[in-house]
Amino acid sequence: MALSATRVRRIEFNLNRIITRNNRVLSQVLNDLTGEIEAEYKHRLSAKQAPPPSKRGQIPARDSGQLVDNTHVIRKGREIIVTTLQYGVWLDGGTSTIAARPWIRRLLHNRRAYWSKRTTALLHAHSKGR
What we know:
Strand order of the largest sheet: 1-2
Radius of gyration: 23 Å
Shape: elongated
């Protein structure tokens, strides 16, 4: 007996399972991105630079290495956060006596297209199970 083409069929989707899997994949991607962003910050900050001090708008010149050692990229939920010394924040935004050297914002903004593509690639890789 042939099935009727006009008969209503019920198709169920288990959204909870899909949401759980997507959250797990997103968590893995955010962990990977956090590590990659921190590695790039450390690499750029620890490049061989000898004083004199950096010029306005440049990445801060390495002096003692404390800025490199105390700059970390962490993940809180779905946010990626850069933590650094107060001095690093002053360098990034500038003060009344220090010209801005936007090293935190510059790295993220200049590489925005790269991080977007990298996120897509990681989502694809993790969703396939690598």
